[in-house]
Amino acid sequence: MSFDVEIRKRVSSAGRSFDLNVQFRTEAQRTVIYGPSGAGKSLTLQAIAGLLKPDGGRIAFNDEVLFDGSVKVPAQARRFGYLFQDYALFPRLNVRQNIAFGLQRGWLNPSRQTAGEAVERWLRAFELTEVAGQRPHELSGGQRQRTALARALVNEPRALLLDEPFAALDPELRGRMRDELQALLDRIDIPMLMITHDPEDLARFGEARLMMRDGAIVP
Amino acid sequence: MDSSAWIALALSLKVAGCATGLNLILGMAAGFVLARKRFPGRDLLDAALTLPMVLPPTVLGYYLLVVIGKRGWLGSWLYETLGINLIFTWQGAVIAATLVAFPLVHKAARAAFENVDPQLENAARVLGLGEWAVFFRVSLPMAWNGILAGVLLAFARALGEFGATLMVAGSIPGKTQTLSIAVYEAVQAGQDSTANTLVLITSIVCVAVLLSAGRLSKART
Question: Residues B119-125: contacts with CB within 8 Å, 24+ apart?
Answer without folding.
Answer: B119/A84, B119/A86, B119/A88, B120/A88, B120/A90, B120/A91, B122/A46, B122/A51, B122/A75, B122/A82, B122/A84, B122/A88, B123/A82, B123/A84, B123/A88, B123/A89, B123/A90, B124/A90, B124/A101, B125/A50, B125/A51, B125/A75, B125/A76
